[in-house]
């Protein structure tokens, strides 16, 4: 049984962007056998504070959930790493290939994975880069994240292939995911270590 998971932001008792998580779950298990909205009706959500709701599921249904307090982690440095032929097209519970790459980050806060000569994601998030006039996200991420999908749909970001050599065209990079959201005050591209 292949286990997958969703990480959903819950703040002040409100579930953020559930429809995007539901869409990914439906794509991952090929249908709407799992209804997150119905499942959440049986969970007592904290009415104050920010929490990470992690729902583990398979094609058979929801296996478990965990609700933990969430504090934003700061990322100031990234290390560019070659991911080889790494694949992570669904949000698999088994992240061993990504974790192995993350072990190479040294003193950096996270990694920036290159696959087939183009940038994809960090170890925990999609990315967007600012070129002075627009925000661009890789056209072929490892995982098409829910925050990324929403920002593309809203027209806030656009997609393109980004190579390591083209990083000099960008001023800054932001990590985006369901927990972090989108913060335009982010990492300078000069804080990416290229090995």
UniProtKB/TrEMBL annotation:
Lyase found in the keyword field: yes
EC number: 4.1.3.38
Species this protein is from: Mucinivorans hirudinis
Protein's UniProt keywords contain Lyase: yes
Gene3D superfamilies assigned: 3.30.470.10, D-amino Acid Aminotransferase, subunit A, domain 2
Protein name, as recorded: Aminodeoxychorismate lyase
Matching SUPFAM superfamilies: D-aminoacid aminotransferase-like PLP-dependent enzymes
Alphabetized GO MF terms: 4-amino-4-deoxychorismate lyase activity
Lineage per the UniProt record: Bacteria, Pseudomonadati, Bacteroidota, Bacteroidia, Bacteroidales
Keywords for this protein: Lyase
């Amino acid at each position: 049984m292949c286990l997958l998971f969703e990480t959903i932001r819950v703040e002040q008792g409100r579930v953020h962007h559930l429809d995007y998580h539901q869409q990914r779950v439906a794509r991952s298990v090929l249908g709407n056998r799992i209804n997150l909205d119905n499942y959440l009706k049986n969970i007592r959500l904290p009415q104050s504070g920010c929490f990470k709701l992690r729902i583990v599921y398979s094609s058979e249904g929801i296996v478990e959930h965990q609700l933990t307090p969430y504090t934003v982690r700061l990322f100031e440095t990234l290390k560019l790493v070659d991911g080889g032929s790494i694949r992570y097209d669904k949000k698999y519970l088994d992240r061993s290939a990504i974790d192995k790459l993350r072990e190479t980050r040294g003193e950096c806060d996270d990694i920036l994975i290159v696959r087939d000569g183009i940038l994809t994601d960090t170890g925990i998030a999609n990315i967007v880069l600012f070129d002075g006039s627009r925000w661009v996200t890789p056209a072929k991420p490892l995982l098409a994240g829910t925050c990324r999908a929403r920002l593309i749909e809203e027209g806030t970001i656009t997609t393109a292939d980004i190579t390591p050599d083209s990083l000099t065209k960008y001023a800054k990079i932001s990590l985006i995911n369901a927990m972090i959201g989108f913060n335009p005050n982010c990492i300078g591209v000069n804080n990416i270590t290229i090995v």
